[in-house]
Design brief:
With 237 residues, the chain is an alpha/beta fold. Helix content is 44%, strand content 14%. The longest helix is centred in the last third of the chain and has 25 residues, at 204-228.
């Protein structure tokens, strides 16, 4: 049982490397579908569809279309906040915030086999989310961000403490760019969630490739450290 759970968590952690969160702010003349395709080609490992103002009918149509696109690239597709719509389109999962539906209720609706992510800002929230069925945590904002007006600042020390306390993967979010990524070194994160660093880029595919390369290098150090913990004093795994 332990080995199976460890395998599941490891697979989830790998999927969290570069977590793209959609935003219509930089669409211009493009469709969101086209921008999502570019980041998927660049190597995004999981994608969240976030729509705050789209009509339900349009949101549904868009979700179905982008879900099929993610399936082509074998990338998990998660919907932000709207648990019922996530179930309706059979998304791979859903992500909820502290002010959205409670974690237990979300888990009940989507069932045991879907991905459930939860936004947290404290160790207490992290432990509660984990105990209620979260598969991963989004922690932030780790840097100042203009993407989310009500974002709460989370100090590096808190991010690190959350990573060291929970057993599920942690994704840092908020103002993350290629230039400041190194400041998250040794925090224990499984990956980063980004919005403008991808969707505001002039070349979305290339921006994604660079983020994937840099983030992989960053988290590899964490993986090497964790692997040491899987070997006992006699050298047995």
């Amino acid at each position: 049982m332990f080995d199976e759970r460890r395998k599941q968590l490891r697979g989830m952690k790998e999927a969290m490397l570069v977590y793209a969160v959609t935003d219509r702010s930089w669409l211009g003349k493009e469709r969101l579908y086209d921008q999502v395709k570019k980041t998927l080609k660049g190597g995004t490992t999981i994608l969240q569809l976030r729509e705050k103002d789209l009509a339900e009918k349009d949101f549904l149509e868009e979700a179905i279309e982008i879900k099929d696109l993610c399936k082509q690239y074998k990338v998990p597709f998660v919907i932000n906040d709207n648990v019922e719509l996530a179930k309706q389109v059979d998304a791979d999962g859903v992500h909820v915030g502290q002010d959205d539906m409670c974690v237990k209720q979300a888990r009940t609706i989507i069932g045991p086999d879907k991905i459930l992510g939860v936004s947290v800002q404290t160790v207490e929230q992290a432990l509660q989310a984990q105990s209620e069925g979260a598969d991963y945590l989004g922690v932030g904002a780790v840097f100042p961000t203009g993407t989310k007006e009500d974002a709460v600042d989370v100090p590096y020390a808190t991010l690190q403490q959350i990573c060291n306390t929970v057993d599920i993967p942690v994704v840092a979010i908020g103002g993350i760019k290629l230039e400041n990524l190194g400041r998250l070194k040794k925090s224990g994160i499984a990956g980063i969630a980004v919005v403008s660093a991808i969707f505001a880029a002039a070349d979305i595919e290339e921006a994604t490739k660079r983020l994937v390369k840099a983030t992989k290098k960053l988290v590899e150090q964490e993986s090497e450290y964790e692997n040491l913990g899987e070997i006992d004093v006699c050298g047995r795994e």
